[in-house]
Amino acid sequence: MTTTATGVVVAGHGVASGQASDSPFAAGTIALQAPHFAARGLDLSPFVMATVNLDIAPLALVLRAPRWTFADVAWTDVHGPETFSFVECAVRRDDDEVTGLVYRPHPETKPRHHQPSTVIELLLPRLAGLAPGDRLDLRVAEGQAALLRH
């Protein structure tokens, strides 16, 4: 069981950030969800209101005891409530390290825009110039999640 991996930044669906032209969530899902998480004790204001998608193939994230799990979050009237878990993490690019969160909508409650099992969605502070193809080193909090061979 490992808690570290190196991954490659990949383009996402653009729904979390609100950049997808076909999304019913023009503000972005993270911005719409953030007040619901804040009401339950998790402040996302230190992070960009978008996800960084990191492909850690051949590994995948397995939740153990996430720092936060929120069930039945009714953040939109477009579909039913969802369950979300958050795992504390650190990301390093070259000599720059930031702390963030793994953002994990539970697939069984998420109606669409699923990610491949090897792609982890991260909430991070702004990393200047970050682009698809960049490599990042990821460390997840021990006990909260594990990175296992897919």
Which structural traits does this protein have?
single chain, 150 residues, mainly beta, Elongation Factor Tu (Ef-tu), domain 3, six-stranded antiparallel β-barrel, two-stranded antiparallel sheet, 1 helix, 40% strand, globular
Question: How would you characterize this protein structure?
Answer:
The chain has one helix at 29-39, and strands at residues 4-10, 52-55, 59-63, 68-73, 82-93, 96-105, 119-123, 135-140, 145-149. The chain has 150 residues and is mainly beta. The protein has one domain (4-149): Elongation Factor Tu (Ef-tu), domain 3 (Beta Barrel), CATH 2.40.30.30. The strands form two sheets. Strands 1-2-7-6-5-8 form a six-stranded antiparallel beta barrel. Strands 3-9 form a two-stranded antiparallel sheet. The longest helix has 11 residues, at 29-39.
CATH topology-level name? Elongation Factor Tu (Ef-tu), domain 3
pLDDT < 50 runs, ≥5 residues: none
In angstroms, what is the radius of gyration?
A: 14 Å
Count of individual helical segments: 1
Major sheet: 6 strands, antiparallel, barrel
Give the helix/strand class.
mainly beta
Strand content: 35-45%
| Overall body shape | globular
